[in-house]
Amino acid sequence: MMNLPGGAVHVVTTGAPDTRAVVLIHGLAGSTSWWDPIMPALEDRYVIRIDLLGHGRSAKPETGYGIPEHAARVGAVLDRLGVTRATLVGHSTGGYVATALAEQRRALVSAIALIDTGPRADAFIDNGRLGNLLYKPAIGRRLWPLLPTPVLRAAMSSAFTLDVTIPDQWVADLNGMTYTSLTATSAAALAYLRARPEPARLTDLALPTLVIYGTRDHRWQPSSFADYREVPSLRTEPLDCGHTPMLEDPTSTAALLSNWLQGQGD
Q: pLDDT (tens digit, 9 = 90+) per residue, 6-37?
């Protein structure tokens, strides 16, 4: 646990400490455990995983969930660990956090990989029937503490298209969130996209970038990922799965990331 302004952040590191690192940033309602299926492919690297504020084992205050705030916190963690060059890998909302950190501190970031990170706000489909209900404050705030585990598991189903078993830890991580940490982070992600689409931000950053996406994503219009092709120095890799390739197709996801990291010298 690292005590940072705004709240303590849970950090997991593997591999020999170095000034260069691969940093894995989970998405909305995720945690460091969402990367477990692909960790064996990264065992030879210094890897840092972070529970964003409001997620996993990190603190869950009432404020601090803006995308730039999440990004600044990740940067503070890297400073504490002595990292001066980082390759950032973000899943879904974690991709916006990675991009925001690169916008804040371009010299710190050497490359970015995005996994099912939607390119623009109007490409978002929805959070499913229960999810949409939760985002109505008058209902959601009262409903949230009453939701049993089976209902939470069902609510997560739109994150997966293939027939996979959602790990119990992932459901527990969602259950451990507060209504504020969930909805505020979600709203912040859409606000970040509405302010400026992701491909335009990446074009300005001019960093080597990899985009992996599921062609059967139920949260983002799969066709929208074609928007990324307009970004120079960016490579797209489609996979026949849904929103969470790390669980639905960990072998292909790990191979794509590992090969790309080798190409970056990381």
A: 999 999 999 999 999 999 999 999 999 999 99
The Cβ of residue 210 has, within 10 Å, a number of other Cβ atoms equal to: 23
d(CA 192, CA 195): 5
Which alpha helices (H) appear in the chain, and where do they start and end? 67-80, 93-104, 128-134, 137-143, 149-155, 168-175, 179-195, 198-205, 245-248, 250-264
- Tell me the backbone φ, ψ of residue 3, rounded to 5 degrees: -85, 110
Instruction: With beta carbons less than 8 A apart as the criterion, state whether 239 and 160 touch.
Output: no
Do residues 11 and 19 lie in contact, with contact meaning Cβ atoms separated by under 8 Å? no
Q: What is the pTM of this model?
A: 0.97
Burial 81-97 (b: 16+ CB within 10 A, else e): bebebbbbbbbbbbbbb
The CATH architecture one would assign to domain 2-264 is: 3-Layer(aba) Sandwich (3.40)
Show me where the domains of the chain are located.
Answer: 2-264
Q: Which residue has the tokens 């995005």?
A: 114
| Angle of CA points 203, 91, 198, to nearest 5° | 25
